[in-house]
C-alpha cells in the first residue's frame, strides 16, 4: 500500500484530537459551560473528571498502538478499511474540535 504512512499519521492525529476533546470537554463540564452528549463519557465525568481524562488518555494510547500494529503486521486487505475508518474518525473529531474551539473562544 502506497499510503501506508497515512495509517500512522492519522492514528497519531486522531489520538491528539481525542486528547484535545477530553481536555476541552472536561474544562467545559467542570465549569458548567457544556453538557456531554455521549452517555458513556457523561457517566465517567459524573464519577470523576480524572477517570474521564484517564479513559481518554488510554484510548489515545490504544489508537496509536493499534495503528502501529496495523502498519507493521497486517496485510493490505485490512489496512485499507482501517485507513478509511481513521479518515472518517478524523473528520468527525476535527468537527468536534472546531466546535470546542468555537465555544472556548467565547468563554
Indicate how many domains the architecture comprises. Answer: 1
- Class from helix and strand fractions: mainly alpha
Number of strands: 0
Task: Output the number of helix runs.
Answer: 4
Oligomer: single chain
Task: Report mean pLDDT, rounded to a whole number.
Answer: 93
Strand content: under 5%
**Percentage of residues in helical conformation:** over 70%
Using the CA coordinates, give the radius of gyration. 15 Å
Largest sheet: none
Account of the 3D structure:
- This is DUF5658 domain-containing protein.
- Residues 12-105 form the DUF5658 domain.
- Keywords: Membrane, Transmembrane, Transmembrane helix.
- There is one protein chain.
- With 107 residues, the chain is mainly α.
- It has one domain (4-105).
- Helices cover 85% and strands 0% of the residues.
- α1 runs parallel beside α4 and α2 crosses α3 (49-73).
- The longest helix is centred in the C-terminal third of the chain and has 30 residues, at 76-105.
- The chain is elongated and about 45 Å long.
- The model has no long low-confidence stretch (mean pLDDT 93).
Summarize the structure.
Helix content is 85%, strand content 0%.
Topology:
Blueprint: H1 4-30, H2 39-47, H3 49-73, H4 76-105
Helix pairs in contact: 1-3, 1-4, 2-3
Features:
single chain, 107 residues, mainly alpha, 85% helix, 0% strand, elongated
